[in-house]
Amino acid sequence: MRSLDRRSFLKSITMAGAGVLSPVILNADSKIHSPRTPTIKNPYSFFGIHQQGIATPAQKHIYFLVLDLHTNSRSDIKEVFKIWTTYASKLTIGENVAPYSKNILIPTLDTGEADSLNPSNLTLTFGVAASFFDKLGLASARPKLLKDLPHFPRDQLRAEFSGGDICIQACADDPQVAFHAVRNLVRIARLKVTMKWSQMGFNSSENNDTPRNLFAFKDGTVNPRANELDKVVWVKDGSWLDNGTYLAIRRVQMHLETWDRTHLKGQNDTFGRMRDSGAAYGKNEEFEEADITALNEKGETIMPEDSHVFLAKKTGMQILRRSFSFASGIDSRTGQFDAGLLFIAFQKDPMQFIKIQNALGNVDRMNEYITHIGSGLFACFGGVSKKSGDYIGKALLG
Ligand code: HEM
Questions:
Q1: Which helix (H) or strand (E) is 331 found in, with range?
Q2: What share of the chain is helix, strand, coil (3-state, %, to 5)?
Q3: Sign, CA torsion 320/321/322/328
């Protein structure tokens, strides 16, 4: 594909986004200010050593989008990432991506549905998959650890929820703010990328309690502490991925109807934790560490050996889980809820996730109630500095 200089590229995608060929569109004199005047500041700046939306507290909503490249031109994609950086820095402070023009006979440069909304703790996180490198002739820069996830026991992956070249994770406490951000990022790049799959999700809790998943269990209790993130999450190898991480995503269907027919003891045994308090078997409080070696008077382990927590903890692996529930209507094939967990985990080495998933494999008692139907592995760049000329992915794309 022909490589474009920045100005003509901007112009072409702006016009394509607008759907109108009008020279007025790039005329700065005709611009007026955006109507957005946020009253609440977003504490999560787009700029920093690391990308936000990883170690920052999970918001209430996610819009996760996976894109395919529609170009093999590295310079086109470089321009896309530059524009995304500019846009992301505006969106995260509650500004529109561009002010409106006085000329009302052309489409507005921002789609507008976040006008009068606060940024609602919006974070935007970008990552690239193994296929990104092959398509852009960057194979030698692909980290050895970045390859498609292996097939796991009981996987029933569907093409419509798997694969893709680029991911954008938008999280906010307002679903409209998250969607608006993704919509505008895609709109400006529509000639260079196509949409592959997406998923909305939600988390709910009061008073900063651990949110409950759709099985009603507190989900996210055990996660690395702030002082463990260098050990567990952040890549520190001097490569372009320095201060970045690997994002593993699984769209896990939860068979709620089957679960709801299971008695409470069976549900507790599935996790090795108590549904009401979140405490591990043998403990009283949610945050008391589970002891998978503790035995009862009969010499059996107190936590069922096929329980989810027993098996995950036994691997000794740590990952940073940041998952969201989803409810996406009815599964037309079964007539049941299409609902589950958009499982997202960050780790400095995908093997941390792979080892746990293999251990859960056929053995996890929870498998009776779930099916993994979507999957992806992405390398998430390190953060962007405020230095002029820096942009997301610069260390890779130059
Ligand atoms: C629908 C899918 C899943 C559900 C409903 C689920 C639910 C839970 C729950 C309720 C807990 C206990 C509370 C907590 O520490 O958060 C837990 C712990 C955990 N889960 Fe999952 N999980 C799912 C999938 C996975 C997957 C795919 C992995 C990784 C491959 C995983 C890894 C872990 C780990 C590492 C822990 C902490 C274990 C420990 O105590 O050390 N989970 N999960």
A1: strand 324-331
A2: 30, 20, 50
A3: positive
> 283: Cβ below 6 Å to ligand 1?
no
Burial of 57 (0-12, 13-18, 19+ CB in 10 A): exposed
Q: 173 is written with which tokens?
A: 């406490």
Six token digits for residue 315 = 């691997």
CA pair distance 54, 385, nearest whole angstrom:
17
- Supply 196's token pair: 């592959």
149 close to ligand 1 (CB < 6 Angstrom): no
pLDDT in tens, the chain (398 residues): 344 444 444 444 444 444 333 333 444 445 566 678 899 999 999 999 999 999 999 999 999 999 999 999 999 999 999 999 999 999 999 999 999 988 999 999 999 999 999 999 999 999 999 999 999 999 999 999 999 999 999 999 999 999 999 999 999 999 999 999 999 999 999 999 999 999 999 999 998 999 999 999 999 999 999 999 999 999 999 999 999 999 999 999 999 999 999 999 999 999 999 999 999 999 999 999 999 999 999 999 999 999 999 999 999 999 999 999 999 999 998 999 999 999 999 999 999 999 999 999 989 999 999 999 999 999 999 999 999 999 999 999 99
Pick the residue whose CA is nearest to atom 30 on ligand 1: 357
Assigned token pair, 234: 């952040």
Q: Is the pTM of this model over 0.85?
A: yes
**Nearest residue (CA) to ligand 1, atom 28:** 357
Q: Specify whether the CB–CB gap between 163 and 66 falls below 8 A.
A: yes
CA-317 nearest atom, ligand 1:
35
The rounded Å distance from CA 312 to ligand 1 centre is 7
Where in the chain are the domains? 51-100+110-386
Amino acid (one-letter) located at 95:
E
Under DSSP, the state recorded for 40 is S
56 SS3 class: coil
Of 152, 153, 187, which is closest to residue 168 (Cα–Cα)?
Answer: 187
Interatomic CA distance for residues 380 and 382, integer angstroms? 7
CA of 30 to the centre of ligand 1 (A): 53
